[in-house]
Amino acid sequence: MAVWTGARRREAVERNGLAALLLAPATLLFTLFVVLPMIEAAWYSVYRWNGYGTPTNFVGLRNYWVLLRNGVFSTALFNTALVVAVSLLIQLPLALGMALLTANRFTGVNLFRTIFFLPYILGEVVAGLIWRFVFDDSFGLSHAIAAWLHVDPPYILADPDLAIYAILIVVIWKYFGFHMMIYIAGLQDISREMQEAAAIDGASRLQQLRHITLPMLAPSIRLSVFFAVVGALQLFDLVMPLTGGGPANATHTMVSFQFVFGITRMDIGFGSAVGVVLFILCVGFTAAFRRVLTRTA
Amino acid sequence: MVASRLFPLARLATLILVAILVMIPLITVALGGFKTIGELRTNPFGLPAMWDWTNYGGILSSAIFWRALANSAWLSAATVFLTVTFGLMAAFAFAQIRFLGRSFLFSYFLLGLLFPAATAILPLFVRIRDLGLLDSYWGVILPQTAFGLCMSIVLLWGFFRQLPQELWGAAVIDGCGYAGFLWHIVLPLSRPILATVSVFTLVHSWNAYLLPLTLLNSSQRYPWPLAIMQYANDYSVDWNLILAFITLTLIPAVAFFLLAQRQIIAGLTSGAVKG
Fold first, then answer.
1. How confident is the model at residue A1 (pLDDT cuts 50, 70, 90)?
2. pLDDT per residue as tens digits for the range B143-161
3. pLDDT tens per residue, range A10-42
4. pLDDT exceeds 80 at position A224
5. From the CA of A161, how many Å to the nearest CA of chain B?
6. Given a cut of 90, is residue A173 above it in pLDDT?
7. B25-46, pLDDT tens digit by residue?
């Protein structure tokens, strides 16, 4: 008996030791470069600090106060809301429509799916540059249309009122294929028998869509809403090549605001406060979304 | 009856229209690289009157282009290798070994899926600088790996968890320890999921912008997204050169996508379900 427990204990020690060994690198990296910086962001955000030495100039919630009264940050928040709205009201229906049209097999279906998905795999920076050309007043699309109408071409990206709409177009172009793929994956789980049964019972295509397909697609729709919102909150890479947040700071998103006013100016405290607001919005949205999900489910 | 006969036609017309709208910018860019600046101004969307290879030739023989691709290749390769290796080790431990604090540590990693990376960026800059890694490849690779680990662990764990218990029993009878079990039995079975995780991580690190932008200073270490931004700002009026540069960076991305389409989509949809 004593020998048996000894062997078991040795086995348990070995097991825990091996687990520790296997987990050490991942845990170390994750803690050092993800979790600690998140905590430090909250800490730095109550200091005025240029990043050298240790933060000593405690300013309390002043950075947050300045941030909330900052007009450019309000614009950034508004732009983020705009991206969310366009994603939900235009991009997702478009993605759903394309998913429904390419859900069944027919010749060429894969080609269409591939084309729609293609913008998603291109880097954000290169997608932004491509569209900077398309919007360019002396070369691109607006140049061509204006020349055709014999008027002066507008430079959309240099117009503080219009530039954000140009960005919204690029967002739709870049990401609708991703949402389409989520819907296609969801559509493949819907049983064909049910649709065929409905068709035999005389349900029209529209009725099938409303009463069978859409309700059964609900999990995919929720997922895609979640990704659209979380993605919109963190939009950055696409904005930099298009406008860099300009003209006149009219097209900033939260992260581009943080980059320009926190990182390039080495205002660590203020930039961290932006990061904390972003964190609260992201985690808050996720928590609220989970709650709604579990309540309806 | 008429409606059902018209449906395939209407569907095809809609799909073609959307496909054209999606492709116009891409084709314009690729063709634009063949034009002179004067022709680009008068004829931005049509076929070039003369196929001018000098823009492409100039970029293909420039050091900036190859340097940027080499930097990106090294940053991505190292990130993928570390993310997959460390993720695999951790996921195996979570799925197959009973140890103290397992569920607590697993929830700890799950938290990482919620965190917006931008929140960490300023403290990360301070940390990387204090470690003396600012403006070095490792200063980008290590944080990139850290951010990729959560997804990698969750995807691999989901796969390892479904391996039948009998496999481990058989391995014990054959006198195989955990290490042998992992190496000889689990790894060969996991090839598809490893491919998915690798491709997913590769696409992310290949296109990464914010992290290298913040952590690298010298342009000779720039990965391609930073290099192309710098190029576009330096040559801001020579759109024909910029378009050629853009097209040359699109080619590997599109080729890779066509090759690894299945893994990319599998990674997205499975990652999506877990996210």
1. very low
2. 999 999 999 999 999 889 8
3. 888 888 898 999 999 999 999 999 999 999 999
4. yes
5. 23
6. yes
7. 999 888 888 888 888 877 777 7
Say what the pTM is.
0.89
CB A62 within 8 A of CB A272: no
Residues A232 and A84 sit within 8 Å (Cβ to Cβ): yes
Q: Which of A18, A104, A121 to mutate to test the interface with B (most CBs of B within 10 A)?
A: A121
Alpha-carbon gap, residue A231 to A224, rounded angstroms: 10
Residue B11 near chain A (CB below 8 Å): yes
Optimal mutation site among B4, B24, B119, B140, interface A, most CBs of chain A within 10 A? B119
Cβ of A98 within 8 Å of Cβ of B142? The answer is: no
Q: Which CATH superfamily is domain B64-274 in?
A: MetI-like (1.10.3720.10)
CA distance B198 to B220: 26
Contact flag A22-B243 (C-beta cutoff 8 Å): no
Residues of A in contact with B146 (CB under 8 A): 29-30, 32-34
A228 to chain B, closest Cα gap in Å: 12
Q: Which CATH number fits domain A71-296: 1.25.40.10, 1.10.10.10, 1.10.3720.10, 1.10.287.180?
A: 1.10.3720.10
Tell me the chain A residues in contact with residue B87 when contact means C-beta distances shorter than 8 Å.
Answer: 26
- Residue A125 identity (one-letter amino acid): V
**What would the mean pLDDT of B172-197 be, rounded to a whole number?**
84
Across the interface, whether the CB atoms of A258 and B121 are under 8 A apart is answered yes
Q: Determine the residue of chain B that is closest to A19 in CA distance.
A: B93
Q: How far is CA A162 from CA A110, A159, B25, B71, in A?
A: 36, 5, 20, 37
- Contact A279/B254, CB-based, under 8 Å? no
Domain segments of chain A as ranges: 1-39, 71-296
Percent of chain B past pLDDT 70, that is, above it, reads 95
Displacement of CA A11 from its chain's centroid (Å): 46
